[in-house]
Design a protein that fits this description.
single chain; 137 residues; mainly alpha; 6 helices; 72% helix
């Protein structure tokens, strides 16, 4: 399996780290350029620490736990990222719900084809796997 963490790719790296940089810039703007007040605000530093912890954990998990890699990370997860990036709850919901609807309609057709072509081995395999959301469906 290829490494899902593409930090050697400049575009992928920018997509991973730009939200953190953007939040730092937004917080600095909130303080109106008063860096002394910004850097003495404990809530600011806690926010940055949690964001860094989340990003660091995500990078660590991507490297160290490859079995947790999404089977198709470019599908619904990418669209959820777009919805989050737009910063609009309805946009996020639209991206996720509409994409999921398409997949939910497509999955039974693909599975029927796989059962027809591969027979019992696929039926046994599919009985032990979730289709879209781990632990749910």
């Amino acid at each position: 399996m290829s490494n899902p963490l593409a930090l050697d790719n400049l575009g992928a790296t920018a997509l991973v780290f730009d939200p953190l940089v953007g939040s730092v810039l937004a917080e600095n703007r909130r303080f109106g350029g008063d860096f002394r007040r910004c850097y003495t605000d404990r809530a600011y530093w806690r926010l940055q620490a949690w964001q860094l912890a989340g990003l660091g954990s995500a990078v660590l998990f991507a490297q160290e736990v490859p079995d947790a890699t999404s089977r198709d990370p470019s599908a619904i997860l990418m669209l959820a990222g777009v919805g989050l990036g737009l910063g609009n709850a309805l946009g996020l919901a639209a991206c996720v719900v509409l994409a999921a609807t398409g997949y939910i309609q497509r999955i039974p057709r693909e599975e029927a084809l796989l059962r027809r072509e591969l027979g019992e081995p696929y039926t046994e395999y599919a009985s032990k796997r979730r289709r879209l959301v781990p632990g749910v469906y």
